[in-house]
Design goal:
With about 200 residues, the chain is an all-alpha fold. It is built from 5 helices and no strands.
Length: about 200
């Protein structure tokens, strides 16, 4: 039996804490710098950013093979935020094509903008893509049933202290990403086509 005392004099380096002079949003150059001002702050740019961030989190969870359960909350929130912003972008672009004015409204209920967006898409492209729009509408209903006011994926309980996401037990992140990829392909293509119509309309 070894009676020598254990050497507990281990060097421990604490992680760095905030220091005087720290700033969060500083300018810079190179591939790791976000260039913002020159592109404008459109709903579309925000939407794409949220979706790409969600995709990246899923890629990371798959690569590391852990933490999917905790990563789910920001992933789902980012996808929901993509949906909300893309629908609002379509309320603007589609509104100008169909009604000659933006139909942008504020609020977090996804069903309301989708209802108007679908009506505008059906006006622009009559009698097309009914099955796809029905499928998209059901996905929006599913999202909205879990999080009708953009709170459930951000907080474990609502303002009244009641637990959020009750009944949601397991979520396949790969399936979530694949379905969101199909949704974004349809919504992004619709917006791009509407923007092309706008650009070719007489001013």
């Amino acid at each position: 039996m070894n009676d020598e005392p254990l050497n507990l004099d281990l060097e421990f380096k604490s992680p760095p804490w905030p220091k005087p002079g720290d700033k969060l949003f500083v300018s810079g150059f190179g591939s790791k710098v976000a260039f913002l001002g020159g592109f404008g702050t459109t709903f579309g740019r925000y939407a794409i950013g949220y979706k790409e961030a969600a995709d990246a989190l899923i890629d990371r969870a798959v690569e590391k093979d852990y933490s999917a359960d905790m990563q789910f909350y920001p992933i789902a929130f980012l996808y929901r935020q993509y949906l909300e912003l893309r629908l609002k972008q379509l309320l603007i672009t589609g509104g100008y094509v169909v009604h000659e004015e933006s139909k942008l409204t504020h609020g977090h209920d996804l069903r309301k903008p989708w209802k108007t967006v679908r009506e505008m898409l059906e006006s622009i492209w009559p009698d097309t893509y009914a099955d796809e729009m029905n499928a998209l509408g059901l996905c929006i209903e599913e999202f909205n049933s879990l999080d009708s006011n953009s709170m459930s994926f951000r907080y474990p309980e609502d303002k009244n202290g009641k637990p959020t996401l009750l009944g949601l037990d397991r979520v396949d992140l790969i399936d979530l990403r694949n379905v969101m990829e199909r949704i974004s392909a349809m919504l992004d293509a619709s917006n791009d086509a509407i923007v092309d119509i706008l650009n070719n309309m007489p001013h």
